[in-house]
Amino acid sequence: MDKPVNNRAWFLVLPVLVLVAFSAVIPLMTVVNYSVQDTFGNNQFFWNGLGWFQEVLDSDRIRAALGRQILFSAIILAIEIPLGIFVALNMPKRGFWASVVLVLMALPLLIPWNVVGTIWQVFGRVDIGLLGHTLAAMGFDYNYVNDPVDAWATIVVMDVWHWTSLVALLCYAGLQSIPDAYYQAARIDQASRWAVFRHIELPKMSGVLLIAVLLRFMDSFMIYTEPFVLTGGGPGNATTFLSIDLVKTAIGQFDLGPAAAFSLIYFLVILLISWVFYTVMTAQKDAP
Amino acid sequence: MTLELRGIARQVGADHHIHPTDLVLERGTMNVLLGPTLAGKTTLMRLMAGLDAPTAGRLVWNGQDVTGQRVQDRRVAMVYQQFINYPSMSVYDNIASPLRLQGVARAEIDRRVRETAALMRLTPMLDRRPLELSGGQQQRTALARALVKGAGLVLLDEPLANLDYKLREELRAEIPRIFERSGAIFVYATTEPEEALLLGGNTATLWQGRVTQFGPTAQVYRAPVDAVTARVFSDPPMNFAAVRVAGGQAALDGGRWPVGRLADGDYQAGFRAAHLRLDPTPGAIPLAARLDVTEITGAETFLHLSRGPDRWVGLIEGVHRPPEGAALTVWLDPAHVYLFGPDGRMARPAPYAQAA
Amino acid sequence: MARITLDALAHSYLPAPRGEDDFALKPMTMTWQDGGAYALLGSSGCGKTTLLNIISGLLVPSRGRVLFGDRDVTTLPTAARNIAQVFQFPVVYDTMTVRDNLAFPLKNRGMPAARIAARVAEVAAMIGMADALDRRARGLTADAKQKISLGRGMVRQDVNAILFDEPLTVIDPHMKWELRTQLKSLHRQFGHTMIYVTHDQTEALTFADQVVVMSEGRVVQAGTPQALFDRPEHTFVGYFIGSPGMNLLDAEVRGDRALIAGAQVALPGDHGLPQGRVQIGIRPEFVTPAEGGRGEEGGGLPFRLERVEDVGHHRILRGRVGDQPLTMLLPEDHALPAGIDRAVPATAHLHVYADDWRVPPVAGERAD
After folding, report:
1. Which of A188, A197, A200, A204 to mutate to test the interface with C (most CBs of C within 10 A)?
2. Which structural domain range is residue B79 located in?
3. What CATH number should be reported for the domain holding residue B51?
4. Predicted ipTM of the assembly
5. Do the Cβ atoms of C311 and B295 come within 8 Å?
6. Which residues of B have a CB under 8 Å from any CB of A?
7. What is the pLDDT of residues A120-151, one digit of tens each?
């Protein structure tokens, strides 16, 4: 049903538009501005056209970082989405324990990013960290500072610990909206547990699942703080993801032109992949 | 006080939600919008209220053009199928809420709330919260809120649909009594012909976004202008059969009856379930059908009949158990038969309806 | 298929019920024959849904037993009871086609594909969806989805019972006629035991051979539609069955006479001297309006007409006898007398109630 046309409503939106303009559009324009110019200091700028974009796209270093980034997001989604669904399916549906579990699940989400990094940095240390020490004591040769595989594993486990609850809570909300009659009908039809999941729970969760996938993709693709605190991008460049690389370029070397071009490409990549996810997941829903 | 719809239409893309419609609703009348789901009842109401803007036509209130005026600026009240009240307020505060918004004085609010509550039989529940009440009482609260405003136009969108059968029956009998006193224009949407008949007043029948007929309820019921209106306004559904008219005589199943100066040709005969009989009455013609199923309510018997491609329902008083799945002869008095032309328009009304 | 026995069944939602008021379902014993069509009729909160949930296995009753045939199923879960159920709102598997929806209960029980196909085709034809078998269930109208739900309920032939929980709620009036007829012919064709829960008397009466009327957790009467209409055992049944419901007038009863609002009417037999709150019940169908009453015996009750409602094939006359409301029905083809001031009840259809329960004539009455 259509809403009545009321042009006065636009005035109410105006403050938001102004805010967005200041917080997003103007900085973005600055970035665009930098990305097509070169400077040698003294506030003197020279037109550089698409030169920086060319340089960024040709850079082996950045390509490697992009590869790592895609791999990381893929691993994160492959673990957190199924795990989140699994956790949601096994959460108590109502009563006292439902509330307790909800609070426990929400806890990791409340911890600031850099604190998460710090916690795991300490937790994983071989000398004083509980995890690192225990693993070493059990005879594993674990050291996230020196070993790239260990570093990756630690970051992945850290992210899973931090964010699976979000997926689980979203799915839980989706599951809660399914009327009991569906489960009862399924029992009467003698549907298997798998069939209940496949034909009742999954379709009813598809809406929130789309949001979960998009959120987790975008967030993991932009991950910065936790690996920065934990490994600083090392050992070597093993955990230098796009954002870490970008900061190194922009702040470390103060190459504003390439950094700006890099940012824009980064932004477009995220937009493109999000769009693909969205299209694929909603197309399946609209099919006759 | 009148509400006039002049060529009001609403189109969304290529869809005609409401075809151009002219209606004049008078002060102090009950106007029923009768039609199946998706016929356009709710859309038409939203246009009347000003919740939706028409794509064509004018809306005139007391001679003044109010098309495009915001709903907040008009004296309109609406009651929905769902029981919509403020759950955190008492029944008293719920009823008082529109008056408080209007800035009415305290003493006056108190007087009007108590008066409306008494009318709606809510006086003992004034201190309770809506969710502690039964469905019927919740809907009475919503009705009271609509009434207390003194709105000139009160729109009721299937207000009884979510109530139990018996509660519905009671409120149906009460609503005309309550609304006769208020002097406002009432518009009441329903899918049930029986409800329209019980409410009386005027009825507009709707079918696929078109008002097919508007007039006094009993007249629309007994003298429908076309087959569509007759079908919309019949429950059980109206029965139809193909008949041939030749030389001023209609023929159906071997039975013949005079139809005046009706032109020769093919017609659709329409008759209501209650007019089929199991025993011959004077002048009745026999019809051979097959009895598929009988349904017995204790007071009445429904006969579900088939005759070639046609499906008929007969409503017979009392309890009857003719053998199911067998041939059955039913009787029909031609005085109860409407004839519709090939275009669906009424060609000859049922004589009994004209006499009444 | 099986006979269903409810043996001294009662249920309370409280862990330690004390008085009778704590019971949502008061003690009841009942037997439903194999292949019968039964309806549980009552307003919301009368306990009919509680009873349905006990039969379907969703609830374990606080007291008593449920037997399917000779087997005690009181504590068995739903899946082990071999029943089918159709809910108030359509329950379909959105991702499946109509065909797969109908086949689902059969596939899960490992029926051979050829038999499934035959059975699905049969049911699809019955619910009028043979053309739509390959469509995805998502995007169908509520009517169509509910038909699929009905079809899924019917598809298994070996069920003990099919339970219907107000299945026509979301259906348009015209479609209701069609679906009700289909249900009825399906019942005749397959002979399933069917239990139909509803607040709608028309649905209950037209569907069932036996209607169980419930009020406040109690079964007030179980019987054929005709018995409920002709001889309500409780004033609630009189009020709830029939539209409008039965007229109930406070009266004084002495033997075969009743005194109502100063007028005397003859009763269909000697009712003795009933105690408590005594009322006379008469259905609106069996009261006729009359004019110019002379107040003598047989002249009926003094009546003040207040309102006439034309409902098509009859008119409802509302008014009062003394200060008590009374309604009458007048068929469409009967003229409305000009100065109505009497209401004449048909003696054979008068009933006497004491404290809401029916008092039979002392000499007994012939059985129907």
Report:
1. A188
2. 2-232
3. 3.40.50.300
4. 0.84
5. no
6. 12, 42, 46, 50-53, 70-71
7. 888 877 777 788 888 878 877 777 778 888 88
